[in-house]
Each structure stands twice: as structure tokens, then as C-alpha cells.
Amino acid sequence: MTQEITVQGTVAEGFEAVREEFAAFVSGEPADYEGQLCAFVRGRRVVDLWAGEGAGGDSLYGVFSSTKGAAHLVVAMLVQDGTLELDRKVTYYWPEFGAEGKGTLTLRDLLAHRAGLVGTDTGFSPQELTDDRAMAERLADQRPFWRPGTAFGYHALVIGALTGEVVRRATGRTLQDVYEERVRAPYGLDFFLGLPAAHEPRFRTTQPMRPTPEQQALLGSAPSGPQTLAGIAFNAHSAEPTDLADLPNVRLVRAKGPASFGGVASARGLAGMYAALLSEIDGKAPLLKEDTVAEFGQFHSVGYDLVARVHKSYGLGFQATADTWHPFLGAGTIGHSGAAGSQAFADPRSGVAYGYTRRRFAFPGGAAPENDRLARAVHLAALAG
User: Fold this and answer.
1) Fewer CB within 10 Å, N side or C side of the chain?
2) Is the Cα torsion angle 68, 275, 335, 215 positive or negative in sign?
3) Is 58 helix (H, G, I), strand (E, B) or coil?
4) CA-CA distance, 176 to 168, in Å (whole number)?
5) What residues are paired with 335 via a beta bridge?
6) How far apart are alpha carbons 58 and 340 in whole angstroms?
7) CA 253 to chain centre
8) What EC number(s) is this enzyme filed under (predicted)?
């Protein structure tokens, strides 16, 4: 059943087609659809839209793995500062990591999902999943699932804990604290790695996927048993298996902001972070220099992902968004999608910074399918401007 869903918000002159595309999409969605779309071009906000009963421009949603973009912006800034070096061994910062044959792995390969350390043999408890340090301690002792550096696979729930421990060892501070001080607070971003209680009333609980019978059949045929690499990567083999869709609805996850999946944001916050990464805003220089963006956006792992079992592309901590999701974007675009359907990226060639959120978990997970048409509309308008 569908009904008229009102699109609210504004677009800049020349971006009217983006509003039309968003309205056309939501008109075909169920009556309970709720989502936001925001975009900047070279630091200027040009799209700020939302739709759905109860939604507002400042509503906050669980953005799952879009969190990894914030986490690895911090790593990129520390590399740019000289605090971290990509080709140092991880053990230079974190000696305990070298157990079980992991001693030769570099920070560069860790960021590119090449560690072979997608989980632990027995999984994590719900309490451990909320605590990056607890996960890192367990992972340091874990034998990798493939020889480090020889292949890659999506470290879905743990990559932020691993890179976050490197940040903590190098700086004496958590990744979340560095992000708050250097990124979120200075720009007033509604993109939190640790949601303060005062902002809880703005949070909209994630709703579960509602697949059609045909989609359910596809989900049921996926070879993702709990003891497969995918099952281990998503903690399905734990004594208390993880319900991925419900993670943002756990207050402790929102409060502690695990760096792989615990972020809470609006589309404004997602797009605003990538705009600050890429462009001058309010007299502030871009957070990353062009060379840093280029290095972190350079292909580092391309081909068969051992966890996802499909073709994937990664830069350093970021997805290679133009190859993985949106081939019309410029080379070197960096970003990250989230399991429920969120998407965020920065295209250094067009100057576009993009953010999208939705409340209900999209089929089949990862960037929701509508992102392709919405991001394309933004990109075309930016190029025509």
C-alpha cells in the first residue's frame, strides 16, 4: 500500500531535479517510509530534503557501516599529521597484535581489510560488541582466517576496533574522542560516535527489513551459515548471535559509538562531514589535503571479497564508492555505505559530498538501491552548475 508522502526541505537553484527525483522515489514507497537526503557542492549545501511521518531534517538514524567513514577520516588526519605511518607494522603501535602470525601486517593492509581477522573463533558477547577496546583485546590473540596481506574480506564489525586501537596506542586517546574534538564539534555535525543522552529524543529507532516473498527466497538461499567467514564476520556464530538490524536500537551501542557500526547521524551530518573533509567551510580549510584524499581513495583491495563473496573495492578504510556502488562518480571518490541503506561519500572531482539515511532496513543490505538514482541526480546537477 502506498500513499502520498510529502517531501520537505529545500534545494538550491539548479538542483530542482534532485527534489523531483526524491519525490518520485518516495511516491512509490510504503506509507511508513522515512528518510533524508543532503548534498553539498564545494562546501555549499545544495540539497536538504526529508520525507515521512515523524521525520525531520534533524532526526537521527543508525547509520551502521557509514560510521567507518568517520572512523577512517580520523586515521587519515593522523596520517596527514605524521602521527601514524601507513607502512609501519601494526605491532609498532600495538605489540600484542603480533600473536598468531600477524606480526608482519602493516597499517596500510589493515585499513584495506587484508588482516584476515574478521572475528574470533567463538564470537563476541553483546557487551563486547559495544566496547572497541574489548574487541581489540580479543582480536589481538586470534589466529587470522587467511594469511595476512594475501587476500581481503570485509571486516564488518571489527575494522573500527582494530584501527581504533592503533589510534589509541599512538595518541593515548580513543578514536571517538579524537573525532569529537577535531571533526564533529568544530563543525556542529549531527554525526555522532557516541550519542549524548541529551540528543536521544531525536533518535528514530531502526525498523527491520520487510522483504517481499521473492526477496525472502533470495535471502534464504544465501550461503551464509554461522560458521562461514560471513557468519563469523557478522557474529552469527556467537552464543548470542547478533541481530544486525537491531544494533542501533541498543542504547549502549548509541552511547559508546563502536567505530565500525555504532554511528548515529542525519543526512546533514553525513554529507556535512564529507564536505568538511573535501572543501573549505566557513573559512576552515579542508580536513584533508588533496594528496591525502588521493592516497586514501586509491584502490588497495580490488576483486573477490572472501566475506561478501562478490566483487568489492576498498581504498584505505573507505569503500571505493565509484567502483562498488556508483560508477558515474569521479575516480578517487571515497565514502562508506551502511547496512540499513545509508550512503555517504565525497567526490573530489565534482566537489559533491552526499548523505542519505533511511529508517527501515533496506533489501538486501548495504547502500539502499535508491541511492543510485538519487546520487546520480545530485551528480548531474552539480556538473551542470
Assistant:
1) N
2) positive
3) coil
4) 10
5) 319, 345
6) 18
7) 15
8) 3.1.1.103
